[in-house]
Design goal:
With 405 residues, the protein is mainly α. The protein is built from 15 helices and two strands. Among the domains are: 114 residues, no CATH class; 31 residues.
Length: 405
């Protein structure tokens, strides 16, 4: 069987680098867009909704880019795949909606031209209740002897991978993210009720030691093991939910688990999750720049997009805590007036009317990382004309402190 890497187009000469960086990866991601505006899971494959959503989020989650041809083609592809009932199918041949409706609504929420599509998708989501936790099913369960097969509260209701089935952690998390990202005027009347039930379900489904797996936290009296990606999606969905001890415990679990992660996909999403909460990241065994853009694309378009997002310090989706709080402070200032106090952190809000800063601070975890690519990307951010010019680099080298016993 031929390697998937062989099917990935070569990177343009000016983008060729030994290590992956966000800016260069985004440019490569653009080359994978199909003629119909979507993206496949791998280069040359038919377009699918999920990779198209993640590609659009990575490419245009940082700046207002709704007027670019690439974005409009991508948004047009998503609009064209929506079913008459407002949902989105997992693939073109399916005639029933799925969990992917949540991701699509979340991605298109910022696009004014997709407002009707998002409103229809959210209505479909809020009308879809899992049958396994219906009042009738709960009544039937109450008549049966108490079971030790699983331990969960069936009065809480989230979302399933497919409509009217059973609640699962990941689709519930994505639905919560869609409800959070959508403008309030697009939310159905029962959105608040659905959100409260789903938040309660996620806390109920948390593993005893912190984190989440795909479904039940305990089966046949045995505690389930948490998994990285379900834990990340759940934590991101609970970011603005009421604080409970389980969330802090799950963050501690994820922080410890980060050092063991070997896959680019899990490493990227875990990094974004911890940064979103402002939790210090331990040094992992692998670095996101250990893979090339082509290697990441071979693992999947969504993986390439996740790594692009993780390395983008100015991303708007799942932003780092400092950026999120600064944005919230600016909103508070606009609402309360000049020189007001931030309701979020009660600190004086500085004025942001000054010209954009010409200073950029970039950090690397190890000296072995590709500093040339990092510098190239940093210079590109400011669009500096540095051709035929000399650049003075002043490294800040910090070595270990060696003291005699």
């Amino acid at each position: 069987m031929p390697s998937l890497v062989e099917d990935i187009p070569e990177m343009p000469e000016q983008l060729a680098r030994t290590q992956f960086t966000a800016g260069l990866g985004v440019e490569f991601l653009k080359t994978l867009q199909n003629a119909d505006g979507g993206w496949g899971f791998h280069a040359g494959e038919p377009s699918r909704v999920e990779p198209a959503c993640w590609a659009l989020r990575a490419l245009f989650g940082r700046t207002e880019a709704q007027d670019t041809e690439s974005f409009r083609k991508g948004a047009g592809y998503l609009q064209s795949t929506q079913l008459p009932d407002g949902s989105w199918p997992a693939c073109a041949k399916m005639r029933a909606g799925s969990w992917i409706t949540s991701l699509t609504c979340s991605v298109l929420a910022a696009d004014g031209q997709s407002a009707k599509n998002v409103a229809a998708g959210l209505k479909w989501l809020c009308d879809d209740f899992p049958r396994d936790s219906s009042p009738w099913m709960r009544f039937v369960q109450s008549l049966r002897p108490k079971s030790h097969i699983s331990s969960q509260n069936d009065s809480y209701r989230g979302w399933g991978w497919t409509p009217k089935t059973a609640s699962w952690v990941e689709p519930t998390a994505f639905a919560l993210l869609a409800l959070r990202d959508a403008p309030s005027e697009q939310l159905p009347r029962n959105a608040a009720e659905r959100r409260n039930l789903a938040v309660a379900l996620l806390y109920d489904r948390m593993c005893p030691g912190g984190g989440w797996n795909c479904g039940n936290p305990r089966v046949y009296g045995v505690d389930g093991d948490a998994l990285v990606l379900p834990t990340c999606w759940a934590l991101l969905a609970l970011r603005d939910a009421p604080e409970k001890p389980g969330r802090a415990l799950s963050l501690v679990w994820l922080q410890k688990e980060l050092a063991k992660i070997e896959s680019a996909a899990s490493l990227a999403v875990a990094r974004m999750t911890l940064e979103n909460y402002g939790v210090e990241r331990p040094l992992p065994n692998r670095n996101l720049q250990d893979w090339s853009a082509q290697e990441l694309a071979a693992q999947g378009t969504h993986v390439l997009a996740w790594v692009c997002l993780a390395l983008d310090l100015a991303r708007r989706w799942a932003p780092a805590a400092a950026i999120r709080d600064a944005a919230a402070a600016t909103i508070d200032k606009d609402a309360a007036g000049k020189n007001s106090m931030s309701r979020r952190n009660r600190e004086l809000i500085p004025s942001f009317s000054r010209p954009p800063s010409r200073v950029m601070i970039r950090k690397v975890a190890r000296y072995e990382e590709d500093l040339l690519a990092l510098i190239y990307e940093s210079l590109s951010e400011f669009k500096l004309a540095v051709k035929d010019k000399t650049i003075l680099l002043k490294p800040n080298l910090v070595g270990p402190s060696i003291r005699k016993a």
